[in-house]
Structure formats: structure tokens, C-alpha cells
Fold each of these.
Amino acid sequence: MSRATHRLRHLPWSSAVLWTVLVVLIVAPVTTFLLCAVSPRLFSLGPQWFTLSSFSAAFQGHTLEGIINSLWVSTTVATLAVVIGTTLAWLVHRTNLFGAKVIGASLWLLLLIPTWMTTVGWINVVQPGELLSAFGLNTVGLSDWFFGAPGVIIILTTAALPFSYLIISAGLRGLGSEFEDAARVHGAGMRRALTTVLPIIAPALLGAFAISFAEAISDFGVAFTISQGHQAFPLATFTLFGAIYQQPSNFSVAAVIAMVLIVATIPPIFFQQRLMRGRSYAVLSARTRPVRRLQLRPLPRAIVSISTATFVALLVGIPLSGAVASSFTSTVSFYTTTGIHWTLDSYRGVFNPPPAYGGSLSGPLWTSSQLGFYVALATLVLAVAMARRMTVPNPGRSQRVADVFLLGAVAIPGIVLAAGYILFFNQAFLTHHLVDLYETTPLVVMGLVAASIPGQTRLLMAPVAQVHAGLGHAARVHGAGRWRTWRTTTLPLLSRTLVWAWAITFTKTLAELAIVELLYVPGHEPASVQIENYLGSVHGAVGAAATVLLLLEMLAVIGLSLGLFRVLAPRGWRRIGQVGAMA
Amino acid sequence: MSRPGAQVELRALRRSYGDKVALDDVSLEIEPGNFVVLLGPSGSGKTTMLRCLAGIERPSGGGILINGQMVAGPSRFVAPDKRQLAMVFQDYALWPHLTVEKNVGFPLATSQASKAARRETVTGLLRRVGIDHLAQRYPNELSGGEQQRVALARALAAEVGLILFDEPLSNLDADRRESLRIEIATLTRDAGASALYITHDQAEAFALADRIGVLNLGRLIQWGTPEEIYRSPSNPFVARFTGLAGELPATVTEVHGDRATISLNTSSSTVLTQCHTRAPAGAQATVFIRPSAASLTPDPQPGTLQAEVHDSAFTGRGYEHAVTIEGRWRLAKIFSPTRFDRGELVELRLDPASVNVMVDEDATTP
């Protein structure tokens, strides 16, 4: 028996299940897609068994421009996100800033809003005839500027900022004041103390860069939404989409672009992993002392607070106000010689559309809600199981490989995954002999679950690892079986996290665009696809109204989930996660 | 409250993690109602042994029997919840989402007793450990000592024949440790359960145990009563780990059975008779001196050694001194009701009956 066969035979069943899920949902579709870059004949997409011609086709003209733009824009976005994220995290967690909680909450809100929604909002502000025009401004120049690199960078930085902020905040929270104290008592001034201490959170900074870069380079929403009716700034994800949807479609060129997107995310992740070897973001220990905040004097405190609040308000407020304002106007023109015309026509249009609008939003909203429910449930079950498997003490080779794989899989663009699904689940050996899932709801659910699992598993790993194994052992030795131990010990401790994870997956699924745009079942368009249809027509205001409604549903789902948890969960469950409850 | 204590047998127990052997061929037997303490340094395998017994770890070899029933063996592994035991964890392992009352009542959830009876049992236990007024609090609202009392009450609530203690006092301050140690000893013995308690603190071990097992590098080095371990350590490791004032080199001059006359290899060549040893005549040996075997006097007397006081510490009932002999050998923890100042020359008297003499080839590693 070879060593590999021996290892396979001794793989625990839970690892085998974990890997089967990952292979079916992610590895096989993505690998299939990437393979067609060099072997089109393998998938009946061309005459050659092996060719590199797709590479030369991809690295020229508009496609090359898209790839280059994606690379430099993502690097810029990641750098900006880390710099701004570090500044905001430090101000919120280490100073006596006014309104720190509101800033934290605003960034959470940004985390929920997909980039296509932000883009819709910004378009509704800067496009001639929209919000700024209502104030008498000529926005033609601004609009041209916005639909180029600057607009893309602003929107993608807005989208990446919450990730960066949350990761760096976690690093700063774990950085007890004893490190600064030690530097200060040994003669370091404030600045030297800071420069001494900041390298301790270097893994967090690099992690923030890696995730911001991956988010930016894999984004589809900005490129797709901006391209609706505009001479757009080309980005790789949209050129990939274009390669699939052009006539005739060119999967091989699309696969080369996908390869570039995936390969580009490897260096930041690799360096972050290298730096993280043997340690975690958390430097918390039983002896970590609570942080001491820098007490700014009244005037500097007021100036810093107002500046920070204004900055965050602009980031959140501009797109939101743009979308909301546009949704309440009567026609394509916001500004008329007779002033602003406020109306609910767009909202009426959403649910009772004229034929030209392309259908009501109620059906797509229901479809998206169903998808959200099932995807969130499936993702939660699988992600918890994987997180538990990954956080066992003394992890084996299987867990270590899965850990790195999931980290890399976070960066697989949704558009790549969806393209992989189209190709893999259309293969004759599956459709003729096993199951034909193409253009079915289960395939959409699988694609959305595949997109959610890597991120959710990694997010759940920390809270799952925090549930001390001793608590479960205590339940077992005091007479509880496996199920009772899980129900009475693990579930209560994770309940708040699970509710959050479910709600966030639900809302993300509601607004997901890249996967559903490629995989939706004809006649059953999800909300995001329908909204893009509105936006692609002359009825942009209806699209804005639909966007606002979808955002409201997302907020309602989170509010309802947390509200139900508050009402239904026992008091002890609700205490977990509150300050000091785990002490 | 009384219940039959469990009889426990470990047969050639072995646990390894890859190449690292944590437990190596350990066999011992705990009689019903006995309070057994496993004593050993960090990494000696004592926690592994406890976890194997609890069913949290699966042994790599050997077997475990509780009341004659194999619970872990080559082809059998009984889950922790089926082993009829309870455990007090080092970090308490109290469930943070449950009140004190519910934590303590957890093991009773599957019992046949009525809800009222279960509640009464919990209240009684909380009263016994002195925290009945904290019944509705959550663990994070308690001090470390109070949390450990909850853990103790939970273990007692299980009404099982075997209670395991995983260094339960190591996170507490000295005062609380002492009071809780007495409560553990009293309540566990009152309950009639057998107990297996692990610690690295020899004072705790001697105070609690009916029998002590000394572990090192995964092996059981010595097994006996506290008196046997203290008076007749089987090798230098046990002697050192169970508390020494210091060591001196010596030559065995005469041997009569297990008693010998030795000459210390100091410039005074002080002779001690009637020492415990298995060393042959003429052997080079080391004298292992317990703190209780040494005393200080101000004036020279026959058989004493001159020493210089290196340090003295007030202990309440007297003074503990550290002394140096000929500038080379240091003995510590030597009690005297009177204080000798640093730098003062004193006379050191050794009680031959309370020292252990072992040949040098033993004195390397256990």
C-alpha cells in the first residue's frame, strides 16, 4: 500500500465528509473551469487537447487592460483600506472619541451593503440629472471622473474598509495596555511606544491587506453595475463575464482571466500565512489587561470626532442618500426647471410595473428570500461542522490543508465559481448518468453555499475555538451524551454567533449578484438580477427604489433575527458574548 | 450522604501522541473509598492519566477497569458519560450560560428523582460548600474560590463512586487553597467516593492522600503511603520532588542490613550512623536531607557541621534558614525557633534516621 493510499484509508470519516463537500462544491467546478484554459477539447469547447493560445488571446487588448486595471486598483484599494481601517480602529478603540459606537455600527452597515448597491447610490448622486444636479451643479466632468478608476477605487475601498477595520480592531482589542506600559516605563515616549507595539499586530495588518485585496479583485458588482449604459472602466471580472456571454462564448479566455484572479490573491495570503505561522491574531491571555484609551483634550477631541464622523457619514451617506433620493423622484431627471418632483411612482412601479419594466420585484424578492433562507441554513450547518473539525487540538494534515484551502477559497471570485458551475455541472458524465442540475434552483443554492462556506467557516473558527474543550468534557463526564453536550453546552455558547452568521449569510445571499447572474433559473430571477435589469433600462429610479427595498429587507432580516434571539433565547444564552460573560 | 467508592484498576496503561509517549506502562489499583494523589512535575503524564480514566482521551494501550468492568481496553472504549464518575477541572469548566444552581444540578438532570428532590439536593450541596446564597448567580459573577466550590458541588451532585480532581487548587491564592483543600478532603471522604487527585504540589499531596503515586516522564516511579514516600523515597527524583533541604556527598563506611554508617565528604569528615540506605560499603553516595532532618545550634557539638547562614526568613512560628557549608553546599528551609543572622557561623545537626543515602549511580536520573 502506498503512503498516499495508507493516509486515505486512515482519514477520519469527518475529514472525508469535509473534503467531499469541498470537492463537490468548490474544487471540482473551479478546477474544471481552470483546466479549460489549456485543454478546451477536454470539455468539448475546442479542437485542442493542449494549447496556450487562450493565454495570448487573454493578454491583449481590452482583456489585458481589464486584468492590469484589476491588479493596480486592488492593490490601491487594499492599501487605502488598511491605512484608513487602522486609523479608524485606533481612534475608536484607543481614544475617547465621541460616537465611537456609531462609527462601529456604520462600518457594520457598510459590510452588509453589496458593492452594486453602493454603485447604484453613487451613480444616483454624480450622474447628470441626479442628486447633485438638483443642487444646480454641473456634474458632467465629475461623472466622467467617477466612471473611471477613481469611482471604482472609492466604492471598492468603501466595501473593503469594514473587513480591514474589523480585523485590525480585533488585533487592537487583544493588544492589552501592558505592552505600551512596558515600553513607557522603559523610557519610550508615546510615539516610540506606538512604533514598538504596532508590529505585534502586523499579522492583523497583513490579514486586512490580504482580505481587502481579495475582496477588491474578486468584485463583480461595481464592474457590472457601472457598465450598465456607460463607457465603463474595464475590470477583469467583467471581461470574464463578457467572455462567457459574448457570441460565441469563450470559456478558455474566461478561464485564463480566472487563473490570473486566483493567482493574484496568492502572494498576500501566502505572506500573511508565513507571518502568522505559530501565532494567531489574538494576543489575548489571562493576564491581558484592559486597554487604556488616550484621553484627548476637549478641543482636539471635538475636532477629531467631527472629522471622523463626517468621513464615515460621507462613506455611508452618499450612496444611501443617492439611492433613496433617486427612488423618490418622478422621472429620469432629478432636476427640472420647476424644481424637485417628489413622488412614490418608482415604488409603485416596482410592484405594478408597466410591461417595459420587465416584471414586478415581488417574485424576485420571494425567490431571493427563499434562496437566502436555504443557503444560510446549509452554510451554517456545514460551516459549523467544518469549523469544529478545523479547531480540534493537534490538527492533522487534513485540517492544515483544509485551513489553507479555505483561506485561499475566500478569494475565489463568485464569477469564477459560477462559471465553473456552468461548465462542470453541464458535463455529460454528470447530466446523463448522475444528475442534471443545470438551470435548477439546487445548483444556485449549491453555488451560493460554496461562495459562503469559506468565509463563514473561517469566521466561525474563532468563536468555535473559544468554546473551551473542558466545558464539553465536563458535560460528558457528568453524564451527558454527545447530543445533550452539544445542546446544553456548545449551542448556548455559540448561539449569538450562529444567529449573526445565519442573518449575515441570509442578507449577503439576498443581495448576491455574480453567482445568481450566471446561474439563475430562467423565469425565476432573484432580486439582484431583476434590479440590474431595471438599472439597465431607462427606468433607473425604479432600480433605485428596488435597491432601497432590498436593503430594507436585509436590515429587517437582521433586526428580526436578533429580536427573536432576544425574545426567545434563555437569559444565560444572551449573556454570552456580552462584556465579561466569558471571564 | 454515603455511596460505595469505586474500585479502579489501571493495567499497563499507555498513551502516546505520535512519537511522544505521555504514559508508559502504568499500572496501579485504587481501593474503594481511597483518596489517591498522583504527584509529578509538568509533563509527567498525570493529566493524561486522569483524562484517560475520565474517557476524554483514548489510551494507546493497556486497560482501565472501574468496579471490575473494562472501560478502556484493546477492543472496548466506554464513553465518559457512561463511566459513572465526576470530575473537578483545573479551570473549573463551569458553563457560563447557566446559573450556579443549574451548573450544580446538571448531573442530576437524568436522575429519576422528582424536580423538588433534585432542587433540594442542589440546595443542600450548595449549603455544604458554603455558597447557597449564590445559587442564582452566573459563574463570571463569582470569585475563583467560589467557582471552585461550585465545581466541587457539581462533582458531589453526581453521586458517583469516583471523583477525579485535576489540580483543582492551582488557580487559587494560598489562603483559599488551604481552606478548600480541607473541604475537598472532608466532603469527598464524607461522600464515600474514591478519589483520584493530581497535583504537582507535594504539600497538597501529603495532606490529602491515603496513597500517593509519583509520576515522571510518563512512568509511575513510586507508589505508597505518604509516610513511605516521604521517609523512603525510591530514588533521587522522588526524594527531590517531595521536598529536600539539600544534598551532601558522602562515603558509605559500614553497612548493617538497611542501616549504614557514612562519612560526609566535607573537610570535617562528619560521621553519621544508622542512616537508611541500600548502598554497599565503600560506595560513593549522596545524602538526601529532608528539612525536618536538619537543625541549627549556635555552639559546636559532636557530629555537627559548621555552616554559614546565607539567608533567614520569618515564617510566623519561627525562622527558616538557608546555610552554606564550606562555601560549596547549600541547604535550605532549615527551621529554627530563634533567628540566626546572615553571615553568622552556626552548627548544623543532621538526624541520621531522617536522611536517605543513595549511591551516586542512582543519583543521576530516575
Amino acid sequence: MADLTPATYPVTRADLVAYAEASGDHNPIHQDPEVARSVGLPDVIAHGMFTLALVARYVDEQLGEPGRISELGAKFTKPVVVPVGGTEIRVEGTWRDDRKIALRVTCGGDTVLGNPVAVLRG
Amino acid sequence: MAVDASLGGRTFPPTAPYDVTDQAVTAFAAATGTPYHRGDPAPATFPIVVAFGAMQALMVDPDVGIELHHVVHGQQKFVHERPVVVGDRLTATLTVSGLRQIAGTDIIATSSAITDGDGALVCTAEATLVHRAGA
């Protein structure tokens, strides 16, 4: 099946602050480098749900229409580290059938989500 | 300390009703750059706002024995019956659908049924929480 057009999204710490406010997930490992390091992370990491929300954004943008996703899921396999200068998340999708899109989500070349899949409404 | 093995199968009380506002959906969409205009359905992961409340209730329950700083979000899936829209009054009811304990790690599978003001199912949010018990 055909590939969708890949997209690259910049991610900044300000985005994580905005996402924490909007989602209610104020875990400090997403905002405070000292707390992140205290639990063995190299630096602040993005919420896994932030990355999954980017996947939903990607599907909405590719389809040019919101509200078509009926199922969306993934494993959070590798943290997305967000240094002071920010980072980028790349999303690319492939049609598996006329309702199912398999995705590949990477940061700095590393895959960060396991088996991300979106299924569309019939 | 590992969580109480009797946690498997337990259903928690429903969360307090959450009213979906245009302001809340706008803020959620803006935080991830998602295209959203007034009247559009909410982004597909928006129900996490409600599901997260249910997960927090599980995580802070002293009888469960979870140490918050040792919890990692392992997996997430949404199954939508319909898109969430502004004006919905949503409630999440979380069930621990599975519990595996392997070498000091608890793998807690949860399923939150998110229902609207009429009690109709809008979305099922399945989250796997990985709890690495402290020494």
C-alpha cells in the first residue's frame, strides 16, 4: 500500500509545559531536569502521550479532516529527550488497508513508539 | 514493595463528571499543534484528560501500594465509539484488567470506560502502567 508523506515536528520544553497544563499530567520529569536526572533520565523527557498526540495530529493532517480516528495505540518504547534547545519528532505512515495506517515514529533516528497504529472509521 | 496481588480485576469508582469545553480542547490541540476549529471533534487522544484522572485515583490509593515515582506509562490505546465533542460530560470508570508481577516489576493493565452524560460509551482508554517497586 502507499506511503503517506512524512512530517517532522519540533518539540520544545515550552510545548511540554503547555501539554502538562492542557492534559493535567504535571509529572516533573517532563519539566524539571534535576528531577529527570534523579530518576536516571539524561534530561527532561516528553510525555509519552504528547508523542502519541503528535501521531493523532499527523493522521488528522494527512487526511485533512479531524475525527476520523476510531482506534489509536502504541507502546512507549524509548523516551523522547528534550534538551534546552528542543528536539524533533518524525512521523511517517503507511496504509495497511483502506482503514488502517501503520506508523513509524522516530527522534534522532531512534524509534520511540512500538507498533503505533491508527484505524479509521468505516 | 510490589502492589497488592488482589488488585487484578478491581474496578474503581467513576471519576467526577468532566465537562468538555471549547477552551480545554483548544488548549489541548494547541499544545501539540493539532489543527482544531470550534465545532470540530476533539483530537483522538483528548480522552486521556479524563482517563488520567482515573489512573491518578488508582496510583494514589494507599491500599494499592503504588510508589508514584516508580511508575512508567508503558502502553496506551484508545478505541472510540464516537469522537469527543465540546459539551460532552465525561466520566471514566477504571478496571484493572490484568496484573503481572515479574522480578519486582508490576505490569498493571487498565481499561477505562469513558461514558457521556447519558451513560453511553464514548471511548475505551487502555493503559499499561509499569511499576518498578523501590528497594
Amino acid sequence: MAADAAVVVVAAADITGRRDRFGLGWRPELAAGILTNRDRIDLIEIIAEDHVDASRAGLRSLRRLAAQIPVVWHGLSLGLASTVPVDTRRLDAFARLVGETGAESWSEHLAFVRGGGVEIGHLAAPPRSPDSVDAACHNLATARRIVGGAPLVENIASLIDPPASTIGEPEWAAAIVAGSGCFMLLDLHNLYANAVNFGEDPVAYLHRFPLERVGSVHLAGGRWIDGPNGARRLLDDHLHDVPEPVFGLLTELGRLTSQPLTVVIERDGAYPPFADILRELTAARQALAAGRAMRAGIARAA
Amino acid sequence: MSSPALEAFLARLYTDETVLSQFLEEPRAVAAAAGLDAAAIVALCELDRDVLVMTARSYRAKRAAQAKPRQRPSRFWRGRRSAP
């Protein structure tokens, strides 16, 4: 109970009154649980690709949903960090969803997803270089113009260090954020996975990202997978609980930042009872509140 | 250095088992045959091949999962003006 009280008392708020918020990725399997627990869930994040071809009836349903709970959209397929210009038809579809539902924001990944006419089927890390920074900024400007608002841009997990990279991932993300004016959706499990997979200290790795530009946070889980010749990687699969070190990173992020954050837990399968998901949301609130409390304590001491 | 050609080659490595096998056998020749520049070829030859295999496997699993029919959005919310 004491921890719950801390959640209420210690939270960041800006001059407009916005506060830290906590939500879930919208999945059909979680819909009933979300809608019967709206008092404990501040918002939902919907995968745009699930609805880009929505009929007028489908859009009405989405508007009704958005009237019940704040909605943000999340994209998977735009490939905004590709050196190939983004497909404006895909952006038109995003603009329709964002506009029709009055969503407050949308987000996409710093990834490429296709090349030479081949669909990879998932997010891939592009070579991190000045060229891909410039290309991403160009694509983000196009996205902002067509959709009507800039997306938050998300760091991705990658098993492989992309070849021909000349810039570290945090510095590459920072350059894109600076060049595009976008805010970041910082996925802390992706960050954690990349850190442990490439021999970095996760907390030190967090410090290198442009934390003052983080608007939203993703939390998720994953598992270790084995490859040939003893190779081992942490895979971000969204099928497991959020691990404790990732909650620790959220506390550290709360300690280091003053802006309100929107935190979303992603789960794509192997769904536990909804009560467990609510407990995970509470753990997220507590983790961020702990960081906010540390920051407040430091400020008082100063 | 990054280019549409390099992204296209990576997309083939991640999705085409034949191209991946050929690349693992003769990385320089396969990358050169794809028309990549010298810097890209050197970078590709330095890739951790075991992790490249893991990466391709991971993408294959993702595509297989996507091929399964997805559950449609629940009627619990689609058909109601307000939830209970």
C-alpha cells in the first residue's frame, strides 16, 4: 500500500498538467480485460497495420473505442530509417487512422523492413551511418507532412550488429531525433537486449540516449536463444514477463528525466491471466515512481 | 555508409536461405556479385556468421508466425457503444 501511495504522490507533471501514464498494447486477447479495468489503464496503443484497411464500420468501432479510452497508434511497416523514401500511400493510411480516431500521437520504429522488393517480415536494423541519419530525417519530415504530426521514433532490438555502421546506436538515435525534431519512444527491453547482446552495461547504455527527448516508453519481455557454435542472444519476443532489470531501467529513466512519460507494456502472446498483467502495470508505476522520488529527493537536497 | 543496395542485400540474406548459404560459403564473392561497393563488401565479410544465421532464423520464425491466421478484434468492443 505504501508503494501504491508513492505512485500517486510521486509522478512527473508538466505545466499543462500532463502526468505519467501507464497503458497496454491493444490485442484482441486482452480487449475484455482492458475494457473492464479502464480505471487502472490510462491508455491503449493500437497496431496500425491491423486496421489500415478498416471499413467505415471498422472506423466507427475505433472511434467508439477511442471515446472510451485514450488511443495512440503504433506502426510496424513504414521502414522510416531506410535509405529508400517512405511509401506515401502507407502514410496516407496512417493519416486516415490518426485523423479518424483523434489519436493524440503515433509512433514508428527506426528500422528498415524491406529492400529490393523483398519484405523481411519484421524490423531490421539499418547500417547506422550519416547516410541513414539523413534518410531517416527525410522520411520523418515526409511522415510529419502527410500524417499531420511527427511520430515518436522507437529504438529496435537487433540480434546482429548492423554491418557498415559507423555510429553507435544511442548516438545514431540522438542524431535522428535532433535532425527531425521527433520525440523518442524508448523501448527499454530493446535497449536492454541490445546492451547485453553487445557487451554494454545497460544503465550506461541508457545514459547515452537523448533522454530529454523521450516521450514514451515500451516495456516487454524476451528469452535467451542459442545459435551455432555457442552463439547466444537475448531475443525480444513480447511473450514473457518484463524482467526486473528493465523495471530498473525505468526507475533510472524516471530519476534522470523531468518530463511526463507514457509507459506501455507490450505483450504479443502466451498471455497470462489478466490479473498478472495488471500487476505488471502496477510494478511499472512503482518503478517509475521510485525514480521520480529519487529525483525529487535530490532536488530537495540541493 | 548505408544504401538501398546494401539494405536490399541484407533483406535477401535475412529471407533467402539459398543466398544465405552461398554467402556463408563465399561472402566476398556473393556480396560482390550483388553489386555492392568495396566498403560494404568488407563490412559484410566482418559479420559474425553465427549471429547472422540466428538473425535469419529469427526472421523466418516471425514470418511463420505472421502467416498464421490472426484473431480478429474482439466483438466485445466492436459491437458496443460502451463497455459494461
Amino acid sequence: MPFFALGLAVVLGLAAWSIFVGASDISLRSLWESGWHDTPVQVLVESRLPRTAALILAGSAMAVCGTILQMLVRNRFAEPSTVGTAEAAKLGFLIVLILVPDAPIFMRLAAAAAFALLVTLLFLRLLRQLSLQSPIIVPLVGILLGGVINAAATFLAYRFDLMQSLAAWSSGDFSMILRGRYELLWLAFALTLVAYVFADRFSVAGLGEDFTTNLGLNYRRVVALGLGIVSIVTAVVIVTVGMIPFLGLVVPNLVSLALGDNVRRALPWVALLGAGLVLACDIAGRIVNAPYEIPVGTMLGVIASALFLYLLLRKHAHLT
Amino acid sequence: MPTLRDAIRQRPVALLVALAVLGLLASLAFMTVGARGPWSFVLPFRGMKLAAMALVAYAIAVSTILFQTVTANRILTPSIMGLDTLYVLIQTSLVFLIGSGAAVALSPSTLFLTQVAAMIGFSGLLYMWLFSGRAQSLHLVVLIGLILGVLFRSLSNLMQRIMAPNEFAILQDRLFANFNTIDTDVLAVAALSVLAVSAYGWRKIRTFDVLLLGRDPAIALGVDYKATVSQILIVVAVLVSVSTALVGPTTFFGLLVASLAYRMTGSERHAFLLPVAALIAILLLVGGQLVLERVFAFDTALSIIIEFAGGIAFIFLILRGVSR
């Protein structure tokens, strides 16, 4: 517990830092001297606070999503971008945008999440039917499937002049976050809490249909709930800030290296580390090339894929 | 009953001639269909484009098949293992480290050769690291290659973001050609490099066949295994550099072409396999571009379609391999 408090303090420190870093210089002093109104306060309320909140919410939600998927699929390398969920959500948004251009955001979200859920279910069923033992196959085929869906999406986007939207969904970037443009992420946060409550059932479901039914749980319902949460959260994150690659894969694995596989104990840490990592990357992205910004997706793309490689190579003795 | 495939296998020359004729027809059509404006403009303009496409197709086909010979399987390709993105990373790092001013001051051929040298070094290291004796699962190697590709691409993106916008513009302009704005100098350097490694490889082509028997049999038959593998890797590095310099990274084109070539020929003789693969690649690229550009008026869609079809083919190859 004292360690968790320490971790929490670090993340809160990063959050505070995130509030005071950026192109427009605001500090406690400038806030005080402006008498708590005027430009500094406006920047604080309209941009910095929403941005910091969005970073924490999106980071923790994506990391928790990874954990849920890993439990349900019983594969350490499952996460929204390695089982087709993320790419399917993008394609879903695109199709809705083409068919019903002025659909309200909730309808778009529902359609994209439903599509993502469907693709993920089909993918997992296909893999189960092939009864594949190698843990490498899930991320390998999943990433390839993501590439195929992505090609289809690119083709559609190219055809209907929507490349800009597609690019925005594909790469995580918090620089456009303002008050009024991130609040959907609270929905993702609420779903993350639901996931915490049901964490034990997800790990039971990972042990198989028969086992789950023997324990008196409705297997299909548990899987549907878990994948439903993952699909909605992924869709929300994609439409508000864009895809954050491999976060859901790397964070839970790092936590389990340190803490072992007790899900209930691990989940708060996963959420904390996810938030911390995204915060740190965003702050670094704002500092490295100030006053310009480097999007989180680019920073994390480097860090997360390097960590993914580390996990693969470290684990390779168990994988072959 | 003799099928078409049997017929082809008995008469390899007929297949070569048929593919060459089809390729020529596609090229002729590409040069002439839908031409508006004076021929003195159209022919040189399209000719450059055609030459670049043929060069890229040849480079990708040959490098893929040779790479598969060295790694003794039909799933890995240089681009799947991240070599294309490695080239882009080297390119970006060069401009990032020495600045665009210095990079522009170098002649295109010096610049290109520097990059090729770095590419040979790094891809050699990568290969040694991935295949250093320990028997690892092929799927793990593929996954590592795919993630390496992501890592290299993200690193290049990061550097391109940090660069000043005009440095980036110069990098883009100078180093990433596309088929519509081909630099004559780059094309000439690329063509010469391809010619050089092809002449070199042609003399060794029978040794490549022996490599397919596996490491130990090849050594028993008197092949200097290590030297041959390194030579092939150098050839592959040069060819990948050429194709990436001309069109940028392509993920699955090589895989598609190589799979088609194996299926059509059913042969393991490189002297037959390599020309067939190169002709298929030219036919696909020129024909595909012709159809999309002139018939459907889609300009950049070819790479997307290749990505789509290639991804599906690759998933199929992997799942078929697994279920066995």
C-alpha cells in the first residue's frame, strides 16, 4: 500500500507538471498576478485542465482494456490493436460517417463500438476453432488483420475524402483537447470502474466455457460484457484523442512482471501506470521541441514498441 | 490429365516468354493509353515512370526470393522483417544528424551510397541477431520483424517531427521520390546499383540453388556457406535500398510476387525462378497502375490494394502453416 501511495503521488506530480507545461506560459504567480481571471486562467480552465484529465482518463482506460482482453483471451499479448478491435472501430466510424454524415456522436460511437465488438468476436472465434496453442499467433494474426482492415479503411477514406479524419483517429494526439471536447472520456472511466468490479469474472472466463459454467457463471454474458467494455472504451479513445498504440499491451505486462498475476491487486497499478506513462509522454512531447508539440502517438510508438520487443525477447524461452 | 501447371513446369521457357510478352504489352499500353499532349512530352515523362516501376518491381522480386532462400522459408520477406523502414530510418537519421544543408551538398550518388553502406551494416547486424544459431519459432521472428517495423517507423516519425519544417521538406523532396517526380540522377544511380548486384549475383546463381538444400548439405557440397549468405544479404540490402528510395516502404508486394512465382513455376532453380518473379512483379505493378490510373482514375490506390490483398495472403500462409 505505501508503494501505491508513492505511485499515486508520482502520477499526481506529473499531472501538476502537465498543467503548467506548454506554449502559453502559466504559473501560480501569473495566475495570482492576473487576479485569477484573464488569459492565464482561461488557458488553465479551457485547455490545460481538460488536457491533463484526458491524459489520465485515456491512459488508464486503455491500459485496463488491455488487461481485460488478456484475461478473456488468456494471452499476454492481447490488446485492442492486436485483436482487431482498434482498427475495426476506426472502420466503423468511417462507415457511419459515409452513410449517415450528420449522425449524432452517440450513434456514431454505438455503431463503431458494435462493429469493433463484432470483429473482435469473429477473430477470437476463428482462432479458437483453429485451436492454436502458440501464444504468438494471436498478436501476429491480429496485427495482420488490423493491417488488412486498415487498408480497407484507407481505401474508403481516400475515395470519400476522409483521409484527415482517419489520420486523426490513427495517431494519439492531445493537443486539440479543449473543454467540451474530451468529456466522452468520462464514459470510458466509468466503464473502467465497471471492469474493476467484474475483474474476477473475466479471469474465470479466461479459463474456458466449461469451467466458467461449472462455477455457475454465464460464460457468454461475461465475455460479451468484457469485450463490450473494451470495444466502447477503444471507440471513445479513438474518436476523442486517437489511437494510443500498444499501451494496453505493455502496461499490464510490466505490472505483472513486478506484481505477479493477481488481477485485483494489479488493476489499480495498471490504471496508474497507464495514466503515468501517457502523461510522461505527453509532457516530454511538449518539452522536447517547444514551442512545437510531438503527439503522444509518436512518442509512445517508440517507447511502447521498444518495450513490446523487450517483452517478446525476454519471454522467448517460454514462447517457442 | 496434364493441367496447365504441369504444362508450364515442362516448358519453363514458354512461361518466361508469355510473361515477357504480357509485360511488354502492359508497358506499351502504359506508355500510350490516354495520352493527351505532344508525344515529345508524354513519352519521356511516362518512360521515366515506367523505368522506375520496372526497377522497383525487379528489385523487390529478386530481393524477396533471395532473402527467402537465405532464411530457408517462404514467409519472411525483407519488408516484413522491417528492412524497408530501416532504410527510411537511416535516411532520416542522416539528415537529422548532419543537417539538410550538408545532405544537399553531397551528390545524390554519394548520399545514396552512404545510405546503402549503412543499410548493409545494419541489416547484417539485424540478421545475425535474429538468426544467430538458436532455433527460434518462425512466428516469433515474424512478429519481432513487424514490431521492429513499427519501431523504425515511429523513430523516423519522431525525428521528422523534431526537424525544422524546411529541413523536413528537403528530406521529403530529396530522398523520397515517387513515380510522378523521379529524379534522373537517383534513377541512374539506382539502375547502376541494380545492374552491378545482378551481374554479381548471376555468376553465383547455381550456388543459391545449393543453399536451398539447407546449411549442412550445402557445406558438405563445398559451398562457403557464411560467405555466400553474407553476399546474398549485401545484394538484398542494395535492392531494398533501391526500391525504398524510389517508392518508400512496401509491406506485402514482395510476398505476393514470390508466392505467385513459386506456385507458377514449382521450381527451385533460381535461374528460372528469379526472372519469372521479376516479370510477374513488373506485370502486376505496371498493369495494376495502368488499370487503376487510366481505367478507374485512382492514382495512389495501388499500394492500398496490395496491402489489402497481401495482408490476407499472409494471414492465409501463416494459418495454413500452423494448422499443419
